[in-house]
Write a structure and sequence with these properties.
Umud Fragment, subunit A; single chain; two-stranded antiparallel ribbon; 434 Repressor (Amino-terminal Domain); elongated; 223 residues; 30% helix
């Protein structure tokens, strides 16, 4: 029994460090756990080499990282092909349905409309990739800052209500995107288009509003 354990450990020596490298490229350990469906605690045990992953989680990690399974398990050979190496310089940010925000959880495959490939170094200046999602802007309330049909990137880690910033909010009727203004006696969810009335929120009702995240970027098609 001891001999078999030593053989397995020898074959996979350093696999935890290689998984950690994939996690870094994916935007962090939590992002890799979310994207592969592996629980964060289990992924941490893999990285610490306290638990040996079976083929299914290894395949999911290799696919997410764009690396070969052989390299991930043994460290032998190149990590990936030229195409994979190019992919390793990018991360996928999911474009989700607005209904996704009804649940406070990581995006699932059923929530995702598309994956947007973005350069790692660029998005690192905006925040942690694992905290980002993209959603389509609907309506004209935020014109000209945001236009109907724009794809907006939301950083779900930025939940502090900062005046002047544009946030996505969840109300009983669904998701809205507005600019936050904080007055002495109320919160104001304001439209950039003056033709649309602002939404005033009494401080005692603020707890009923859920901040989904701050808008940090917009992708706009040239029309």
């Amino acid at each position: 029994m001891q001999k078999a354990k030593e053989s397995t450990s020898s074959l996979a020596a350093g696999f935890g460090q290689r998984i950690a490298q994939v996690a870094k490229k994916a935007g962090g350990k939590r992002a890799l756990a979310d994207s592969t469906g592996i629980s964060p605690s289990q992924l941490y045990r893999y990285i610490a080499e306290q638990s040996l992953p079976t083929i299914n989680p290894l395949a999911a990690i290799a696919k997410e990282g764009g690396v070969t399974l052989d390299w991930l398990i043994t460290g032998a050979g190149a990590a990936g092909t030229g195409e994979q190496d190019a992919a390793n310089r990018h991360v996928c940010i999911p474009q989700v349905r607005q209904s996704f925000f009804a649940h406070d959880r990581a995006p699932q495959e059923s929530d995702t409309l598309a994956n947007i490939l973005i350069d790692q170094r660029w998005i690192a200046r905006k925040g942690r990739p694992g905290d980002m999602v993209v959603v389509e802007m609907s309506g004209h309330n935020m014109y000209p800052s945001l236009v109907n049909g724009d794809l907006v990137m939301i950083d779900r880690s930025k939940l502090e209500p900062l005046p002047g910033k544009i946030f996505a909010f969840w109300l009983s009727a669904g998701m809205i995107i507005r600019r936050l203004d904080i007055r002495p006696d109320r919160y104001v969810l304001a439209s950039d288009d003056a033709r649309h009335e602002p939404l005033d929120i009494d401080p005692d009702k603020w707890g009923e509003i859920r901040i989904l995240g701050q808008i940090v970027w917009v992708f706009r098609e040239v029309r």
